What does this fold into?
Amino acid sequence: MDNSTRRRLVLGFISNWISKLANTIIQLIQVPVFLHFWSVPLYGEWMIVISVPSYLNVSSIGFGNVAGNEMSMMTARGDQDGALRVFQSCWWFITFVCAAIIALLAVTLYFIPAGKLLKLHAIGETDAKWIIFYLGCSVLLGQLETLLQSAYRCIGRYPYGSFLKSTFSLVSFGLMMIPVCLGKGARETALVFASANVMITIVLGILVKRDIPWVRFGWKHATFSEIRRLSGPAFAFMAFPIGNALNLQGTLMAVGYALGPTAVVIFGTARTVSRVALQMVQMVNITFWPELSSSFGSNNIALTRTLHRRSCQMGLVIGVSIVTAMMTLGPWFLHRWTGGHVPPSPGLLAILLTVVVAYSLWSTSSTLLTAVNKHQKLAAWYLFGTSVTVVVTYFCAKYLGLYWAAGSLLISEIIMNMYVLPATLKLSEDTFPAFFASMLHYPASLKPQALLQRFSRSKPSFEN
It folds into this structure.
């Protein structure tokens, strides 16, 4: 791994951290601002209405991510013409799909009483339809933004692309807060937010054109055969949000059907605390993703193997470290977080944290498969594993109790580890003994002796 790769990884991790920080800032600020300027019923109905357009995300079918992988691999082996062909093909396909969905959404909203179906009172019928339409257009535009960010990925500037996305998210959020603070209603707020996202998409397109001269917005190089070739991996991406829903909401519903709402609260809050580590593990996955695409695309298997080993090592270290901390502080935090309403259960939390450790290994390793568009079987196994887990969770909760229900979550993690590791090791031309040995190998500069020596040399001297 050369210095430029290390530098991109460090910058990528920092930019992903900034992205998480931006999302956290938005989540922390928006609630008190909305509740200060709006009534509680109005804000509650706003939350209900804005959840409807989020379902339009499935229409992307993963073409933005698949295009990014393909463009990165082609650029790595010097095939800029091929990367441009993929970009233009996916750009026009996504544009066509989004335009068709916008038209269908407009017709549907015209005939369906959205406000009545959502049982709205503070937001009028007409306003509810326009809010859904405005925000629906904004969600669909986000799919083009994903493709534009992929252009930065393929030239090794993904930290910059991620930073732009974080900045634009804060800008659009800030602009949305203006009508709220001015006492405007939900419809005006949605219009400002959607308009801001339109402008952001245009600005991002201009920046991509300026920074990457070979990217051209046309249809000369677009081909339907390219769309057909990428459709398999693109459709496979749809399995991941479905599997996530089964893993999160499905198992929670299974516990609820078996044991009732009280058990759901205990189980759900404990799992929320345990999943803190997953956020950091996912940051590792996103950081290594573009480098894995480039190294595999250039047929640099040695670098691909090294990146795969180091990403798994980092994901495992972060997962185990945070899990260890949560084992100590988790029960106290859970008690404080819920105001004492949910009794902390160290045993339940320990089981759920074990699930997190098992997840961290296969999740990071599977990034190699998704980064090179070889994730179709991965998606099928993930759906299978999470589906089986939901069924087993119900029976474990009903007949054995909450601890066994939590333990049943390990089923999908074990299934995924059994598939993912052999598949990724084969792809990176690695072996089990060498891979597991690499998990215990660290650079000399990070060994305890070297860190102590560096610390002793850096200690300030107070001698005259």
Remarks:
- The chain is about 80% helix and 0% strand.
- The mean pLDDT is 82.
- Residues 3-229 form one domain.
